[in-house]
């Protein structure tokens, strides 16, 4: 290890080495928003998506962790030497290989389990059908971590892996809020907007709203925990729903909007 493993909210971002303009744009956008919301970016220091995410984080003075498929003193790929030097002082390098150990093809898929294991979840931005990024996503599933994928064009080889992950249950990322909501975080800008949108609440409405989260809860359970009878809590929830700040799901389940 190089650096101080004192970091908060780690999340992995991985993807293809053969990055498209679309992939580059989305990688910069998502990384920027996550760093601005206090996340530590974990990736594999490879060409393409990995390098874009590390570099974006460093430029924002954020925290990033690079998991290498070589010894810590071996910069691979060589064109990342400038990035390697920028990261060396204030960020984190990790490897399970000894100093001076050169990278080998078999080490790259093997190290992916460390990338996903360090993280709350893994975000895949552009990935071929059998890419290392898809391997990282399956490692995340085995480790009981979240898997997110950015959808792409159905005729693009760079998006086949992401689209299949979504088809098989990965959470699609249409904006950074799709990630933040999974951990009950709101973006700085979203919080400001929500404060403007939420109307003044009555005492009962505030009690119900404050108790709700983004995890669905049944109306009966909500009634018991808050101590408001069923008829009153139903009318309160309906008022909150009409105001657009509560959402009713099937089966009389409710969540914050």
Overview of this protein structure:
The chain is of the alpha/beta class and 257 residues long. It folds into 2 domains: 10-183, 3-Layer(aba) Sandwich (Rossmann fold); 198-256, Arc Repressor Mutant, subunit A. It contains 11 helices and 10 strands. The protein has helices spanning 21-36, 49-59, 81-88, 107-117, 132-142, 160-167, 177-180, 188-197, 203-211, 219-226, 230-242, and strands at residues 10-15, 40-43, 64-67, 92-94, 121-125, 146-149, 171-172, 217-218, 246-249, 253-256. It has a 7-stranded parallel sheet, with helices on both faces. It has a 3-stranded antiparallel sheet with strand order 8-10-9. The longest helix has 16 residues, at 21-36. It is elongated and about 70 Å long. The model is unreliable at 187-197 (pLDDT under 50).
What distinguishing features does this structure have?
alpha/beta; 7-stranded parallel sheet; 257 residues; 2 domains; Rossmann fold; Arc Repressor Mutant, subunit A
Secondary-structure blueprint of this entry?
Blueprint: E1 10-15, H1 21-36, E2 40-43, H2 49-59, E3 64-67, H3 81-88, E4 92-94, H4 107-117, E5 121-125, H5 132-142, E6 146-149, H6 160-167, E7 171-172, H7 177-180, H8 188-197, H9 203-211, E8 217-218, H10 219-226, H11 230-242, E9 246-249, E10 253-256
Parallel strand pairs: 1-2, 1-5, 2-3, 3-4, 5-6, 6-7
Antiparallel strand pairs: 8-10, 9-10
Helix pairs in contact: 1-2, 4-5, 9-11
